[in-house]
Design brief:
The chain is mainly α and 88 residues long. The protein is built from 3 helices and no strands. The longest helix has 16 residues. About 23% of the residues have low confidence.
């Protein structure tokens, strides 16, 4: 058995899917789907869809720990400069 070749293929696959953090996010998403509501067929369908996009981007995805999306509703509202009114 060619263990080095197998290791190289596994590393290539992980790198293609976005690295180890993406792999961890995928695993977490699959765990959430498995524990969630629905029949086995529904869960299998959702899991298949979830694996099409690496990195847990679906609706069952846990929130990303380091997001820099400035347009999200969780972002703080912009504040006015000191000494200026917000209507200026």
């Amino acid at each position: 058995m060619d263990l080095k070749g197998l290791q190289r293929k596994a590393k290539q696959l992980i790198d293609r899917r976005g690295g180890t953090e993406s792999l961890k996010a995928d695993a977490e998403e699959l765990k959430d789907i498995a524990k969630g509501p629905g029949s086995v067929a529904d869960k299998a369908k959702r899991a298949g869809e979830a694996l099409k996009d690496p990195g847990a981007k679906g609706p069952d995805a846990p929130p990303a720990p380091h997001t820099s999306d400035t347009g999200s509703p969780t972002s703080p509202a912009p504040t006015a400069e000191p000494g200026r009114s917000p209507d200026a």
